[in-house]
Design brief:
Blueprint: E1 8-13, H1 20-33, E2 38-42, H2 56-63, E3 67-72, E4 75-80, H3 89-94, E5 101-105, E6 114-117, E7 123-124, E8 127-128, E9 143-148, E10 162-164, H4 168-181
Parallel strand pairs: 1-5, 1-6, 2-5, 6-9, 9-10
Antiparallel strand pairs: 3-4, 7-8
């Protein structure tokens, strides 16, 4: 696989509990096995909490700290609670360091090449319904493919490929093409 000078980006969008994280974890493991450096970004619309209740970092945040960091010999992380909205994807990518691939999760409305992960609840007999967030003008422009939990591998109103969400080789083939383009 050709390693890109700048990272290849692939976004995974879909509703909660459709398998986005599981798919990204499996793709990250496969990329790592192939010698690629992977960075991941997740958008969360539910006021996430990175530190378990009662830990030192959680206590700092609860006391009002707007930035908290934690580090050890294996790495570090920072959390910022500024109250001025979510940072842009481009500003977050910079913090990932030198990576070959960036997988993003969520970000339904971001104009970026994406795989839409469908849940079984969107299955309508012989096809899957198009998710609501794709049912407006221009929403499908950046969709490369769909991931579905089971056959049929057809999405109403879309002429894009539909892969089984466990088809790691299929998604890696998409990533290979993106890396050659970038």
């Amino acid at each position: 696989m050709k390693v890109a000078r700048k990272p290849a980006f692939l976004l995974f969008s879909g509703y909660k509990h459709t398998g986005k994280t599981t798919l990204i974890v499996r793709l990250t493991a496969e990329c790592t096995r192939r010698g690629l450096r992977v960075g991941c970004l997740k958008h969360d619309g539910h006021d996430f909490r990175t530190s378990p209740e009662g830990t030192d970092t959680a206590r700092y945040l609860d006391a009002g700290a707007i930035s908290v960091g934690i580090a050890d010999t294996l790495g570090h992380y920072m959390i910022e609670r500024r109250g001025d909205g979510a940072p842009s994807v481009s500003s977050l990518v910079v913090s990932l360091g030198s990576v070959d691939v960036v997988f993003l999760e969520g970000y339904k409305t971001v104009a970026m090449r994406k795989i839409v992960v469908l849940g079984a609840d969107l299955r309508c007999g012989d096809h899957y319904a198009l998710p609501d967030f794709l049912q407006h003008d221009g929403a499908m422009l950046n969709v490369l493919a769909f991931a579905a939990p089971e056959p049929p591998f057809v999405v109403a109103g879309a002429s894009l490929p539909v892969y089984h969400r466990n088809d790691i080789d299929g998604f890696m083939a998409i990533l290979d093409r993106l890396m050659l383009e970038d």
